[in-house]
């Protein structure tokens, strides 16, 4: 779950990916509530209240973009070879691309 900011996860997100994130079980109930801190459990209970809830369409790409960590918010200071830098100097790299050998797609 550290991949995502819990505070940005909505009830609709939880409905669609709660089990995938191991936050809910197959019955849409909180999975292992004893492991959560009280304030997190309270927020999770609120988000997992699906009574009278009508699910909206869900996009995993939109979910990642909205709930993922924002480097601009996390980067306190940056320098590269003595020059200052910002979050704009970084590029997002997918994990799958990072796991590929460097010559994938290269001729020969």
From TrEMBL:
Q: Output the superkingdom of the source species.
A: Eukaryota
* Name of protein: ASI1C protein
Recorded source organism is Ramphastos sulfuratus
Gene symbol here is Asic1c_1
